[in-house]
Amino acid sequence: MTQLEIQGHAAKTAARALATAGTxxxxxxxxxxSASLRANTDKILAANAKDMNAARAGDMRESLLDRLELxxxxxxxxxxxxxxxxxxxxxxxxxxNYSTRPNGLQIGRxxxxxxxxxxxxxxxxxxxxxxxxxxxxxxxxxxxxxxKEAFNxxxxxxxxxxxxxxxxxxxxxxxxxxxxxxxxxxxxxxxxTGIVDLLIPRGGAGLINHVCENAKVPVVQTGVGNCHVYVxxxxxxxxxxxxxxNAKCSRPxxxxxxxxxxxxxxxxxEFLPMAKALLDAKNTELRCCDExxxxxxxxxxxxxxxxxxxxxxxxLAVKCVGGLDEALExxxxxxxxxxxxxxxxxxxxxxRFLDEVDAAAVYVNASTRFTDGGVFGLGAEIGISTxxxxxxxxxxLEQLTSGKYIILGSGQVR
Amino acid sequence: MTQLEIQGHAAKTAARALATAGTxxxxxxxxxxSASLRANTDKILAANAKDMNAARAGDMRESLLDRLELxxxxxxxxxxxxxxxxxxxxxxxxxxNYSTRPNGLQIGRxxxxxxxxxxxxxxxxxxxxxxxxxxxxxxxxxxxxxxKEAFNxxxxxxxxxxxxxxxxxxxxxxxxxxxxxxxxxxxxxxxxTGIVDLLIPRGGAGLINHVCENAKVPVVQTGVGNCHVYVxxxxxxxxxxxxxxNAKCSRPxxxxxxxxxxxxxxxxxEFLPMAKALLDAKNTELRCCDExxxxxxxxxxxxxxxxxxxxxxxxLAVKCVGGLDEALExxxxxxxxxxxxxxxxxxxxxxRFLDEVDAAAVYVNASTRFTDGGVFGLGAEIGISTxxxxxxxxxxLEQLTSGKYIILGSGQVR
Lengths: 414, 414
Description:
Two copies of one chain form a homodimer.
Chain A: H1 3-18, H2 23-39, H3 41-57, H4 62-68, H5 72-87, E1 95-100, E2 106-113, E3 116-120, H6 125-137, E4 141-145, H7 151-167, E5 175-177, H8 183-190, E6 198-201, H9 205-214, E7 227-231, H10 237-249, E8 258-264, H11 265-279, E9 285-288, H12 290-295, E10 300-301, H13 304-307, E11 315-321, H14 324-334, E12 339-343, H15 347-356, E13 361-366, E14 384-385, E15 393-394, E16 401-412
Parallel strand pairs in A: 3-4, 3-6, 4-5, 7-8, 7-12, 8-11, 9-10, 9-11, 12-13
Antiparallel strand pairs in A: 1-2, 2-16, 14-15
């Protein structure tokens, strides 16, 4: 067996015991984790400093350095996140539709953990703790494969968490870190059938596509968002301008940010300058179709590729459409199925948009930026699924579970 | 584009319209299907006769010939199955957890179809109608890839269904048959990403493993059942004998039939002859471990391979175990995660078995043969999932759906 297979079997064994651990014990382990993070802040900062020094020496971009860096305040924030997970209800053990069938069998579906969850992610060490805490609460063992840039930070986090979990009487192997940070370990995880019950990739489109195309283990596809805001001709234009500004500029790097503005031809001449006035505050680069370019004459022109691009930056594609049907066609062609919004005062247009757009989250008169586990009332989230199977939209604790039917009889045969 | 890609795009377009069709219209299409099957019984029988003649000429086994054959009575049974699907509640459009968040956003999760479902199945023409009717009711387009042995029967079924669906004002392309019955079309379906939202294989372990290992589209794994009955030392032995006889012999070819009997050492000498007396009525071949072989001296001895085999026949592997822990270990090692049963009068043993066995259905004091959508209260089923993601156990209409969040605002930004 390879190192990773040994680690996987240890996780599988640990997962079997964790599956029947009570909420009290799991919460005690989580409390030990948050206490340990707080008590060992200096040790975590020292490990992170090594990662930061190596990253600076390697000329990492400033925005990535910022994601990698830990501070005492950020570590406190991570510990608070663990405390919040303690406060969430435990989904495990809940029995749905428990009833007695005509033949006297009592049948219900009990919520159970998935088993072993693998995470592949990039240079954000906070994900190491968030993911481990959500898996622990939902009764799953986790195998963490973080990026090499954050290896020292991840290692100290995992060591502290393993100690904490063991101190609460659970197997330390419910949390483990993949020591090989090359592409080899990613490819090995993709093939760990019979061990990994769910693989969640978090990162850029390149990583996610590689994982989805090559995995033999079950995967949930997350977080690629080419989101649209469509301003229909009856829209309140002031509201529409506020929404597109918020959807584009409040945090352009995240997956629920808007990438394309669609606007009805009839109102484009009035609306586009209003929107531009707000977007200019962040020097947002506009990439316009021929028609909108005649209105926003100073802007760039859009290429075909722009309609399909998640810019992740202060860049917005702009297109005039002839009405709802054309907007729906454009969205159907280019959406990644994440979040889509219409701004309208038309009842019929709002209902058709809700009915016909095929995405995890469909909005009327609100910013796409609300697609989030906390906002949706799920508590913490482990990612946002853009696939239709198993989980769609923000994934909370419940999306890390499966069901099993329990059947209690008194000798029934068929 | 290949023929199958053209067919896939037509299904995708048809699925978009079907997704917003009302229950009344979908039920009208289903009623037209069942009426057409009844009105065209002779035409269906003539097509089936061609398949039967070719199969007999090709020396098909008697049990497979029986699966392939249609009679007027069987066609009536298929039509009744469609009528029963009409009577099931439509899951589409139901909104879960619809509530108003603190910021005034109204958020709920609406149940929606998956889109395009592909079925790959073998020589049972009734599956053609069952699968199409369940997909239609749940708002999904379906691409049917049946076995070559049933091609003429499948073709007439699909032609009649397409006419019926069109007569109800829906696109005929919501139901289509793959005309190529070679392995090539299976492999092409596995790669129809962006078109097929869910692929369900139904058939032998060979087909299912091939599909699961090679599919790039989402798959639900169904119907491989290596099921165990464990007779614990406190069991009511008469009840236990009735249960193992029923689980093995009531229909040995199906996936919820038992394949291995585990029996506590302490009661083996008393129990095994009782069980054998019943199993002998069907000339059941017993394959025994060394210890049980000393009790059932005339039986065969089991090989390692027997513990992992779904016999699908009147064959039962028999093993003595030292108690619950050894039984749980054996099941964890060999289960396919379908259905597992314990027979016991011990409260603690029953609870531990329910807690610790990882399978779609876990039974106390009842036959594994009850794992079935109808018995579990789901209505008709499209298969029994043995995976943990998305659907586990019998798959009814709800398991053919996804959710999408709908969010109604009044200008909220974040």
